[in-house]
Design brief:
The protein has 346 residues and is of the alpha/beta class. It folds into two domains: 202 residues, Medium-chain alcohol dehydrogenases, catalytic domain (Quinone Oxidoreductase, Chain A, domain 1, Alpha-Beta Complex), CATH 3.90.180; 135 residues, 3-Layer(aba) Sandwich (Rossmann fold). It is built from 13 helices and 15 strands.
Length: 346
């Protein structure tokens, strides 16, 4: 079969690899029907995630059809259409029992495309299939289901829920790529009084407005001063960092009011300065996190009931065999206008 293989920083190849088989009783082998590329995959290619070994198949967001299951799998069977979660859960350890699947001690967590081969391939092995896949209802298509593999639960859990967004809040989202847009979409579930999107790209600011941002700003527009003016000099209640670079994290800490919350969602490859000399006296709460995907069943029900409008998130579509071209497009969003790419099997 073909797969996208990482060969060290800056090196990737769409090449022939052996088709996976079940190794453990709880495994499933899934034929990939639709897959996407994550910003984290780009971080891996930049060398920001040294735990990823050369020779690893990348990818952790996919929808597929179950091809084969191990003898202990009970909730899915061959022929079922499933969402493959970006987080794998053993379902038994202390963290899984607390629905903190991202911290799984039993061999799960973020392992697909990280510590084991991922899903940017024609077939993928999924450990702990009973707790790491979700049956898809007929009314949810493959394309919209892809957004539940990672970006929607990540933005909702690590951004909106960790940021404790409540009705009437002023919420600032710094960086409105796919994660930032999903944060805007899911923050709206809590009826904030104002959502402000900050991004250097005009096209992304326009898309943020279409998805519910009340105001969009470019970084060079003196964002801090404008937000202070809009909030009577106090600052935002919540700032969601959705980029993963020091400047945007530090900007978020300057945008929130005393007692405000900074929810960091971005994947950071370099240290960021934490100005405790300024923050300690302002009662600022800072949260970080890896998604647990505990919200995926809820979001899936909302998607099936047409309570989440994810139209416009997928901007570019390819055949699965066009993986190299899809990476080129996704990796140059300033030129291509790409938000989220989707690749489909023939």
């Amino acid at each position: 079969m073909k797969a996208l293989v990482f060969h060290g920083p800056g090196k990737r190849s769409w090449e022939d690899v052996p088709q996976p088989e079940t190794r453990e009783p709880g495994d499933a082998v899934v034929r990939i029907d639709a897959v996407t590329i994550c910003g984290t995959d780009l971080h891996i290619l930049k060398g920001d995630v040294p735990a990823v070994d050369s020779g690893r198949i990348l990818g952790h967001e996919a929808v597929g059809t179950v091809h084969k299951v191990g003898p202990s799998v009970t909730t899915v069977r061959p022929g079922d259409r499933v969402l493959i979660s970006c987080i794998t859960a053993c379902g038994r350890c202390r963290f899984c029992r607390a629905s903190q699947y991202g911290q799984c001690l039993g061999g799960g967590g973020w392992i697909l495309g990280h510590r084991i081969d991922g899903v940017q391939a024609e077939y993928a092995r999924v450990p702990f299939a009973d707790t790491s896949t979700h049956l898809l209802p007929d009314q949810v298509g493959n394309e919209e289901a892809l957004l539940l593999a990672d970006i929607l639960p990540t933005s909702y859990e690590v951004g909106v829920l960790n940021g404790e967004v409540t009705p009437g809040d002023v919420v600032v989202v710094v960086g409105v790529g796919p994660i930032g847009l999903a944060a805007i979409l899911t923050a709206r579930l809590f009826t904030p009084s104002r959502i402000i999107a900050v991004d250097p790209a005009p096209a992304r600011r326009e898309t943020a407005a279409l998805h519910g941002a009340h105001l969009t700003l470019a970084p060079e527009e003196d964002v801090v001063e404008q937000i202070m003016e809009l909030t009577d000099g106090l600052g935002a209640d919540v700032a969601i960092e959705a980029v993963g670079i020091p400047d945007t994290f530090e900007l978020c800490t300057r945008l929130v009011r005393p007692g405000g919350r900074v929810a960091n969602v971005g994947v950071h490859g370099r240290p960021a300065t934490l100005h405790l000399e300024d923050l300690w006296i302002r009662n600022i709460k800072i949260t970080t996190g890896l998604v647990d995907t505990s919200s995926t069943p809820t979001l899936l029900r909302m998607l099936a009931a047409q309570q989440l409008d994810v139209g416009g998130f997928i901007t570019h579509r390819f055949g699965l065999h066009e993986m190299p071209e899809a990476y080129d497009v996704f990796g140059r969003p300033e030129e291509s206008g790409a938000l989220k790419t989707a690749l489909f099997a023939a």
